[in-house]
Amino acid sequence: MSNSPLVTYSRISPNRTSPRNHKIDTITIHCIVGQWTAKQGCDYFATTGRECSANYVVGKDGSIGLSVEEQDRSWCSSSRSNDHRAITIEVASDTKHPYKVTDQALAALIDLLVDICRRNGIKALLWKGDKSLIGQVDKQNMTVHRWFANKACPGDYLYNLHPQIAAQVNERLGAAAPAEPEKKPSQTPSGATFTPYLVRITASVLNIRKGPGTTYAVTGQIKDRGVYTIVEQKGNWGRLKSGAGWISLSYTKKV
Length: 255
Description:
The structure is a single chain. By secondary structure, the protein is α/β, with parallel strands linked by helices. It is built from 4 helices and 15 strands. The strands form 4 sheets. The protein has a 6-stranded mixed beta sheet with strand order 1-5-4-7-3-8, sandwiched between helices.
């Protein structure tokens, strides 16, 4: 097992079990309840008298710290079985509900998740918000601390973003949303089959909407100016391959 090359600071905590006893197949996102940098988080886990740690710490400034190597189990989720199979990530957050994180931290978290999935053979992140599916990684491979203890972690801000986080990671992994039923190829008015195509986002922040138009609810945002696949088009709106929703093509450029 390797560690992420995105790490900007490393200080290994003694609070760990070496080695982990299970293949990495799960992701658990936490909030650290403090607007810290990765260095501050890693230094805390390395020196605290409390029995706690995490594999990674994502700082408020987008820094990424390694606190427990991926080959080892962190002490993070109040569940030994979960921590043995999961990569645990503490993200800097506000100290009050809903424990909001910065845009820099969220972008770094998504970069880190993409890297973790690629290196560990996780083809897609699966999220249904269903505690009964713990351990059934073919149906759901994301878990949260609140399922194992009487805690608010990861806070409502990150918890409610789980569908968006999974969709953005899966888009970059080239994986369609697993929960989305397979659709028949779209057709133009003339009956021709629609051919998917790639676009690069040109806006710094682009809303993802539930349907093709501004009257539909916003379900997420794209902030990485990355390349995305359009699998259906209605007017000047395109549907994302990930299943996250629709984007305005006015803020994209064909690749």
